[in-house]
Specification:
With 340 residues, this protein is α/β, with parallel strands linked by helices. It has 12 helices and 12 strands.
Length: 340
Protein backbone atom coordinates (compact mmCIF):
# COMPACT_ATOMS: atom_id res chain seq x y z
CA UNK A 1 0.00 0.00 0.00
CA UNK A 2 1.49 3.40 -0.93
CA UNK A 3 2.59 5.50 2.06
CA UNK A 4 0.12 8.35 1.51
CA UNK A 5 -2.89 6.30 0.43
CA UNK A 6 -5.90 5.83 2.69
CA UNK A 7 -6.12 2.64 4.77
CA UNK A 8 -8.13 -0.13 3.09
CA UNK A 9 -11.69 -0.62 4.25
CA UNK A 10 -13.97 -3.64 4.52
CA UNK A 11 -15.51 -2.57 1.20
CA UNK A 12 -12.08 -2.70 -0.43
CA UNK A 13 -11.54 -6.20 0.94
CA UNK A 14 -14.97 -7.32 -0.27
CA UNK A 15 -14.29 -6.00 -3.78
CA UNK A 16 -10.82 -7.58 -3.93
CA UNK A 17 -12.11 -10.96 -2.74
CA UNK A 18 -15.30 -10.86 -4.81
CA UNK A 19 -17.59 -11.26 -1.81
CA UNK A 20 -20.07 -9.16 0.14
CA UNK A 21 -19.26 -6.83 3.02
CA UNK A 22 -21.21 -9.18 5.29
CA UNK A 23 -18.97 -12.09 4.34
CA UNK A 24 -15.84 -10.06 5.12
CA UNK A 25 -17.32 -9.13 8.52
CA UNK A 26 -18.02 -12.77 9.25
CA UNK A 27 -14.43 -13.71 8.46
CA UNK A 28 -13.08 -10.90 10.64
CA UNK A 29 -15.34 -11.97 13.50
CA UNK A 30 -14.31 -15.61 13.23
CA UNK A 31 -17.77 -16.85 12.24
CA UNK A 32 -18.04 -20.50 11.21
CA UNK A 33 -20.68 -19.56 8.61
CA UNK A 34 -18.14 -19.05 5.83
CA UNK A 35 -16.94 -21.69 3.36
CA UNK A 36 -13.22 -22.53 3.74
CA UNK A 37 -12.42 -21.46 0.16
CA UNK A 38 -14.17 -18.12 0.68
CA UNK A 39 -12.42 -17.58 4.00
CA UNK A 40 -9.05 -18.18 2.33
CA UNK A 41 -9.89 -15.71 -0.45
CA UNK A 42 -10.86 -13.03 2.05
CA UNK A 43 -7.75 -13.57 4.14
CA UNK A 44 -5.57 -13.38 1.04
CA UNK A 45 -7.18 -10.03 0.16
CA UNK A 46 -6.64 -8.78 3.72
CA UNK A 47 -2.96 -9.69 3.57
CA UNK A 48 -2.52 -8.24 0.07
CA UNK A 49 -4.12 -4.91 0.94
CA UNK A 50 -2.57 -4.64 4.40
CA UNK A 51 -5.90 -4.35 6.19
CA UNK A 52 -5.78 -4.14 10.01
CA UNK A 53 -8.73 -4.37 12.39
CA UNK A 54 -9.03 -1.35 14.71
CA UNK A 55 -9.91 -3.20 17.92
CA UNK A 56 -10.19 -0.01 19.97
CA UNK A 57 -12.70 1.47 17.54
CA UNK A 58 -14.65 -1.79 17.46
CA UNK A 59 -14.79 -1.83 21.27
CA UNK A 60 -16.12 1.73 21.39
CA UNK A 61 -18.69 0.96 18.73
CA UNK A 62 -19.97 -2.30 20.21
CA UNK A 63 -19.20 -1.80 23.94
CA UNK A 64 -17.37 -5.13 23.75
CA UNK A 65 -13.70 -6.05 23.78
CA UNK A 66 -14.09 -9.49 22.26
CA UNK A 67 -12.17 -10.93 25.23
CA UNK A 68 -13.08 -13.55 27.80
CA UNK A 69 -11.10 -13.40 31.05
CA UNK A 70 -9.87 -16.70 32.48
CA UNK A 71 -8.64 -17.26 36.03
CA UNK A 72 -7.57 -20.90 36.32
CA UNK A 73 -4.76 -22.98 37.85
CA UNK A 74 -1.77 -23.51 35.58
CA UNK A 75 -1.79 -27.31 35.65
CA UNK A 76 -2.09 -29.80 32.83
CA UNK A 77 -5.84 -30.49 33.02
CA UNK A 78 -6.83 -26.83 33.09
CA UNK A 79 -4.25 -26.04 30.43
CA UNK A 80 -6.01 -28.50 28.14
CA UNK A 81 -9.40 -27.00 29.00
CA UNK A 82 -8.08 -23.51 28.18
CA UNK A 83 -6.67 -24.72 24.87
CA UNK A 84 -9.97 -26.28 23.83
CA UNK A 85 -12.05 -23.36 25.12
CA UNK A 86 -9.84 -20.87 23.30
CA UNK A 87 -10.40 -22.71 20.03
CA UNK A 88 -14.16 -22.83 20.48
CA UNK A 89 -14.42 -19.15 21.40
CA UNK A 90 -12.20 -18.18 18.45
CA UNK A 91 -14.81 -19.64 16.11
CA UNK A 92 -17.07 -16.85 17.35
CA UNK A 93 -14.50 -14.08 17.11
CA UNK A 94 -13.54 -14.10 20.78
CA UNK A 95 -10.10 -14.26 22.36
CA UNK A 96 -9.02 -15.13 25.89
CA UNK A 97 -7.09 -13.15 28.48
CA UNK A 98 -5.50 -15.68 30.82
CA UNK A 99 -4.20 -15.32 34.36
CA UNK A 100 -3.31 -17.97 36.92
CA UNK A 101 -5.02 -18.73 40.21
CA UNK A 102 -2.49 -19.46 42.93
CA UNK A 103 -3.08 -22.27 45.41
CA UNK A 104 -0.29 -21.04 47.70
CA UNK A 105 -1.32 -17.38 47.52
CA UNK A 106 -5.10 -17.42 47.14
CA UNK A 107 -5.65 -13.73 48.10
CA UNK A 108 -3.82 -12.72 44.92
CA UNK A 109 -6.75 -14.09 42.93
CA UNK A 110 -8.54 -10.84 43.74
CA UNK A 111 -5.73 -8.82 42.12
CA UNK A 112 -5.98 -10.97 39.02
CA UNK A 113 -9.75 -10.57 38.89
CA UNK A 114 -9.49 -6.80 39.18
CA UNK A 115 -7.01 -6.80 36.30
CA UNK A 116 -9.35 -8.84 34.09
CA UNK A 117 -12.37 -6.68 34.93
CA UNK A 118 -10.28 -3.55 34.39
CA UNK A 119 -9.46 -4.76 30.89
CA UNK A 120 -13.19 -4.77 30.13
CA UNK A 121 -13.56 -8.46 29.37
CA UNK A 122 -16.97 -9.48 28.08
CA UNK A 123 -17.22 -12.49 30.41
CA UNK A 124 -15.25 -14.34 33.08
CA UNK A 125 -14.42 -18.04 33.47
CA UNK A 126 -13.20 -18.67 37.00
CA UNK A 127 -11.56 -21.49 38.92
CA UNK A 128 -10.26 -19.59 41.97
CA UNK A 129 -7.86 -21.09 44.50
CA UNK A 130 -10.22 -20.73 47.47
CA UNK A 131 -13.91 -20.77 46.65
CA UNK A 132 -14.82 -20.41 50.33
CA UNK A 133 -13.12 -17.02 50.66
CA UNK A 134 -15.59 -14.38 51.97
CA UNK A 135 -13.55 -11.65 50.25
CA UNK A 136 -13.82 -13.45 46.92
CA UNK A 137 -17.56 -13.94 47.33
CA UNK A 138 -18.06 -10.29 48.22
CA UNK A 139 -16.10 -9.12 45.18
CA UNK A 140 -17.86 -11.45 42.74
CA UNK A 141 -21.27 -10.36 44.02
CA UNK A 142 -20.33 -6.77 43.13
CA UNK A 143 -19.61 -7.56 39.48
CA UNK A 144 -21.95 -7.08 36.57
CA UNK A 145 -19.71 -9.02 34.17
CA UNK A 146 -21.20 -12.41 33.21
CA UNK A 147 -19.24 -15.25 34.75
CA UNK A 148 -18.98 -19.04 34.65
CA UNK A 149 -17.54 -20.93 37.63
CA UNK A 150 -15.41 -23.87 36.59
CA UNK A 151 -15.98 -26.68 39.11
CA UNK A 152 -16.24 -24.14 41.91
CA UNK A 153 -19.05 -23.13 44.28
CA UNK A 154 -18.92 -19.63 45.77
CA UNK A 155 -21.53 -18.97 48.43
CA UNK A 156 -24.02 -16.25 47.63
CA UNK A 157 -22.90 -15.84 44.00
CA UNK A 158 -25.64 -16.59 41.49
CA UNK A 159 -24.02 -17.35 38.15
CA UNK A 160 -23.57 -20.10 35.58
CA UNK A 161 -21.34 -23.02 36.52
CA UNK A 162 -19.86 -26.20 35.06
CA UNK A 163 -19.44 -28.86 37.74
CA UNK A 164 -17.73 -32.24 37.59
CA UNK A 165 -19.20 -35.26 39.37
CA UNK A 166 -16.38 -37.51 40.60
CA UNK A 167 -18.47 -39.98 42.61
CA UNK A 168 -19.24 -42.60 39.92
CA UNK A 169 -15.61 -42.84 38.77
CA UNK A 170 -14.36 -43.09 42.35
CA UNK A 171 -16.85 -45.86 43.07
CA UNK A 172 -15.70 -47.74 39.95
CA UNK A 173 -12.04 -47.28 40.92
CA UNK A 174 -12.55 -48.50 44.49
CA UNK A 175 -14.55 -51.51 43.33
CA UNK A 176 -11.81 -52.31 40.80
CA UNK A 177 -9.22 -52.26 43.58
CA UNK A 178 -11.35 -54.34 45.95
CA UNK A 179 -12.00 -56.90 43.20
CA UNK A 180 -8.22 -57.06 42.81
CA UNK A 181 -7.91 -58.01 46.48
CA UNK A 182 -6.97 -54.60 47.91
CA UNK A 183 -8.36 -53.84 51.35
CA UNK A 184 -6.46 -50.74 52.59
CA UNK A 185 -6.94 -47.88 50.14
CA UNK A 186 -5.48 -44.38 50.36
CA UNK A 187 -6.36 -41.16 48.58
CA UNK A 188 -3.94 -38.32 47.79
CA UNK A 189 -5.88 -35.16 46.99
CA UNK A 190 -6.18 -31.41 47.49
CA UNK A 191 -7.61 -29.91 50.63
CA UNK A 192 -11.09 -28.45 51.05
CA UNK A 193 -10.35 -24.94 49.74
CA UNK A 194 -12.09 -25.81 46.48
CA UNK A 195 -15.05 -27.93 45.43
CA UNK A 196 -12.98 -30.72 43.80
CA UNK A 197 -11.10 -31.36 47.04
CA UNK A 198 -14.32 -31.52 49.06
CA UNK A 199 -16.14 -33.67 46.52
CA UNK A 200 -13.25 -36.11 46.07
CA UNK A 201 -12.92 -36.76 49.79
CA UNK A 202 -16.68 -37.20 50.20
CA UNK A 203 -16.93 -39.35 47.08
CA UNK A 204 -14.02 -41.52 48.22
CA UNK A 205 -15.60 -42.13 51.62
CA UNK A 206 -18.93 -43.01 50.01
CA UNK A 207 -17.27 -45.32 47.48
CA UNK A 208 -15.32 -47.17 50.16
CA UNK A 209 -18.48 -47.61 52.26
CA UNK A 210 -20.40 -48.89 49.24
CA UNK A 211 -17.61 -51.39 48.54
CA UNK A 212 -17.85 -52.70 52.10
CA UNK A 213 -14.61 -51.23 53.43
CA UNK A 214 -14.49 -50.15 57.06
CA UNK A 215 -13.55 -46.50 57.74
CA UNK A 216 -10.38 -47.77 59.44
CA UNK A 217 -9.33 -49.28 56.11
CA UNK A 218 -9.46 -45.99 54.20
CA UNK A 219 -7.00 -43.13 54.50
CA UNK A 220 -6.80 -39.63 53.03
CA UNK A 221 -3.74 -37.39 52.61
CA UNK A 222 -4.76 -33.80 51.80
CA UNK A 223 -2.48 -31.05 50.54
CA UNK A 224 -2.65 -27.41 49.49
CA UNK A 225 -0.95 -28.28 46.19
CA UNK A 226 -0.26 -31.62 44.54
CA UNK A 227 3.42 -31.16 43.83
CA UNK A 228 6.55 -33.28 44.30
CA UNK A 229 6.53 -32.67 48.04
CA UNK A 230 2.91 -33.81 48.25
CA UNK A 231 3.85 -36.99 46.39
CA UNK A 232 6.65 -37.81 48.81
CA UNK A 233 4.76 -36.93 51.98
CA UNK A 234 1.57 -38.58 50.74
CA UNK A 235 3.30 -41.86 49.93
CA UNK A 236 5.19 -41.86 53.25
CA UNK A 237 2.00 -41.17 55.21
CA UNK A 238 -0.08 -43.80 53.44
CA UNK A 239 2.60 -46.49 53.57
CA UNK A 240 2.93 -45.89 57.32
CA UNK A 241 -0.80 -46.59 57.57
CA UNK A 242 -0.40 -49.88 55.71
CA UNK A 243 -2.24 -49.12 52.47
CA UNK A 244 -2.06 -51.58 49.60
CA UNK A 245 -3.59 -49.20 47.03
CA UNK A 246 -3.38 -45.47 46.29
CA UNK A 247 -5.72 -43.25 44.28
CA UNK A 248 -3.85 -40.13 43.15
CA UNK A 249 -5.97 -37.17 42.06
CA UNK A 250 -3.28 -34.87 40.72
CA UNK A 251 -1.35 -34.21 37.56
CA UNK A 252 1.17 -36.36 35.73
CA UNK A 253 3.89 -34.74 37.85
CA UNK A 254 2.21 -36.06 41.00
CA UNK A 255 1.93 -39.54 39.49
CA UNK A 256 5.62 -39.50 38.56
CA UNK A 257 6.51 -38.34 42.07
CA UNK A 258 4.44 -41.12 43.64
CA UNK A 259 6.03 -43.78 41.46
CA UNK A 260 9.49 -42.43 42.27
CA UNK A 261 8.81 -42.42 46.01
CA UNK A 262 7.37 -45.94 45.95
CA UNK A 263 10.49 -47.11 44.11
CA UNK A 264 12.67 -45.45 46.75
CA UNK A 265 10.82 -47.50 49.36
CA UNK A 266 11.32 -50.64 47.28
CA UNK A 267 7.58 -51.04 46.78
CA UNK A 268 6.45 -52.65 43.53
CA UNK A 269 3.54 -51.32 41.47
CA UNK A 270 1.11 -53.00 41.17
CA UNK A 271 2.54 -56.16 42.77
CA UNK A 272 2.61 -54.67 46.28
CA UNK A 273 0.68 -51.41 45.98
CA UNK A 274 -1.85 -50.69 43.25
CA UNK A 275 -1.98 -47.16 41.84
CA UNK A 276 -4.92 -45.38 40.21
CA UNK A 277 -3.77 -42.25 38.41
CA UNK A 278 -5.49 -39.03 37.34
CA UNK A 279 -5.62 -37.86 33.75
CA UNK A 280 -7.96 -36.89 30.96
CA UNK A 281 -9.87 -38.80 28.33
CA UNK A 282 -7.27 -39.37 25.62
CA UNK A 283 -5.05 -42.14 24.25
CA UNK A 284 -1.96 -40.95 26.14
CA UNK A 285 -3.52 -42.13 29.40
CA UNK A 286 -3.63 -45.68 28.12
CA UNK A 287 0.09 -45.85 27.36
CA UNK A 288 0.97 -46.19 31.07
CA UNK A 289 -1.27 -49.23 31.44
CA UNK A 290 -2.28 -47.95 34.90
CA UNK A 291 -5.92 -47.57 35.93
CA UNK A 292 -6.92 -43.93 35.48
CA UNK A 293 -9.69 -41.58 36.52
CA UNK A 294 -10.12 -39.45 33.40
CA UNK A 295 -11.24 -35.82 33.49
CA UNK A 296 -13.74 -34.78 30.76
CA UNK A 297 -11.64 -31.96 29.29
CA UNK A 298 -13.49 -31.50 26.00
CA UNK A 299 -16.94 -31.70 27.58
CA UNK A 300 -16.03 -29.12 30.24
CA UNK A 301 -14.69 -26.79 27.54
CA UNK A 302 -17.78 -27.29 25.37
CA UNK A 303 -20.24 -26.60 28.18
CA UNK A 304 -18.25 -23.59 29.35
CA UNK A 305 -18.12 -22.11 25.84
CA UNK A 306 -21.87 -22.56 25.44
CA UNK A 307 -22.62 -20.75 28.69
CA UNK A 308 -20.17 -17.93 27.93
CA UNK A 309 -21.52 -17.36 24.42
CA UNK A 310 -25.10 -17.35 25.68
CA UNK A 311 -24.34 -14.57 28.17
CA UNK A 312 -22.31 -12.51 25.73
CA UNK A 313 -25.18 -12.73 23.28
CA UNK A 314 -27.43 -11.17 25.92
CA UNK A 315 -29.16 -14.04 27.70
CA UNK A 316 -30.76 -12.99 30.99
CA UNK A 317 -32.03 -16.46 31.86
CA UNK A 318 -31.74 -17.92 35.35
CA UNK A 319 -28.16 -19.11 36.01
CA UNK A 320 -27.54 -22.59 34.69
CA UNK A 321 -25.50 -25.36 36.27
CA UNK A 322 -24.15 -27.93 33.82
CA UNK A 323 -22.83 -31.20 35.25
CA UNK A 324 -20.46 -33.66 33.61
CA UNK A 325 -18.37 -36.41 35.17
CA UNK A 326 -15.04 -38.15 35.29
CA UNK A 327 -14.81 -41.76 34.07
CA UNK A 328 -12.77 -44.70 35.27
CA UNK A 329 -10.44 -46.45 32.83
CA UNK A 330 -9.36 -49.82 34.25
CA UNK A 331 -6.09 -49.76 32.33
CA UNK A 332 -5.01 -51.51 29.11
CA UNK A 333 -8.52 -51.13 27.69
CA UNK A 334 -9.83 -49.02 24.78
CA UNK A 335 -11.39 -45.71 25.73
CA UNK A 336 -14.89 -46.80 24.68
CA UNK A 337 -14.75 -49.51 27.36
CA UNK A 338 -14.41 -46.97 30.16
CA UNK A 339 -16.84 -47.33 33.03
CA UNK A 340 -18.04 -45.03 35.78
Amino acid sequence: MPVNSRPPTILDIAEAAGVSKTTVSRVLNGSARVAPETRTRVRDAIARLGFQVNLAARSLRTSRTGLVGLLVPVISIFGLIVESLDGQLAEHGLGVLLTSSRRRDAPRDLDSLEMLVGRGVDALVLAPSDDRSPELARYLRSLRTPMVLLDREVRGVACDAVLVDHAPALLAAVRHLVDDGRQMIGLITRNDRTRPGRELVAGFAAACAAAGLAPSSTHVAEFVDLDQQAAQTGVDTLLDRGVDAIIATGTLALTAGILERLAQHGVGVPSEVSLVTWGHAGPENLETGLPTIAYPVEEVARLTARLVLSRIEGSTATPRVEVTRTVFLPGDVPLHAAVG
